[in-house]
Design brief:
This protein has 258 residues and is an all-beta fold. Helices cover 2% and strands 48% of the residues. The radius of gyration is 18 Å and the shape is globular.
Length: 258
């Protein structure tokens, strides 16, 4: 079976929003805007991501995801501002989705929101996305390290998520510019202003058949003026129909499987 389809801005399946000024309410793009303004179809996988400047509630920053999204990551620290927080949720579309929706944060911060759609025929349909715990770094981009989804080597879609906070206004602001090696179709959202409390964030994609992937770093400039946060999401491909053959990677060999 083919890899899950990479969502792109051009296709209308990858959108972004920002929350500024700081708020506890973070709004996502109108669901009807997906699929080139045609809206989701039944069985499509929808993924919502909120990359936030900070937190003050460990592991319990996000709540009340709208539009019946189910949370799969709430990665936040109790040590406060400038360290970043990540909330990720998913939904299997009914085909009747429309309107904007929100997620609530326990504390008031600026954020960047991403919303994406992966077509029903290209992803597994029942196995939900898996996500790695967030990695943080002080004064540089965060390196999420190697990620190994539970289904091992299949035609997986990997999604790299990164954010860079702004904790100082000395010099030029932090800028994210280039995704990790082998990742593409990036969407980079710049900060609203050059101010402490702002955040820039980005997503990029890779289709890979392997047991794991060491994603690597996003690159940019002036990253010492803030802190990095990063994670990886894995989307499992559609199952192989009975009687068909597929090739899976085991080490350096490819084995033909029914």
């Amino acid at each position: 079976m083919p890899f899950p389809t990479i969502p792109t801005v051009a296709s209308g399946d990858l959108n972004s929003d920002t929350t500024s000024p700081a708020s506890t309410t973070h709004t996502f793009t109108n669901l009807s805007s997906l699929r080139g303004n045609a809206g989701p179809q039944a069985g499509d996988l929808l993924i919502a991501i909120c990359v936030q400047y900070g937190a003050a509630t460990a592991g319990n920053q996000y709540s009340s995801w709208g539009a019946s999204f189910s949370e799969i990551l709430d990665d936040s620290l109790s040590t406060g501002t400038g360290v970043g927080a990540l909330g990720i949720a998913y939904k299997i579309a009914s085909g009747s989705e429309s309107g904007t929706f929100t997620v609530t944060s326990a504390n008031s911060f600026k954020s960047v929101q991403f919303l994406m759609r992966i077509p029903a025929a290209t992803w597994h349909g029942t196995t939900i996305p898996e996500v790695q715990a967030a990695t943080r770094a002080t004064g540089l981009a965060a390196d999420p390290g190697s990620f190994n989804p539970s289904w091992a080597a299949e035609d997986t879609l990997l999604i790299s998520v990164a954010g860079q906070t702004e904790t100082s206004t000395t010099g030029s602001p932090p800028v994210i510019s280039t995704p990790p090696t082998n990742y593409s179709n990036q969407l980079i959202v710049a900060r609203i202003a050059d101010a402490v409390g702002d955040i820039t964030a980005a997503v990029a994609f890779r289709q890979l058949n392997a047991d794991s992937d060491d994603v690597g770093l996003w690159t940019g400039t002036n990253l010492t003026r803030g802190n990095g946060i990063a994670t990886v999401i894995a989307v499992r491909p559609a199952p192989t129909p009975p009687g068909m053959h597929r090739k899976v990677r085991r080490g350096h060999r490819f084995l033909t499987m029914r």
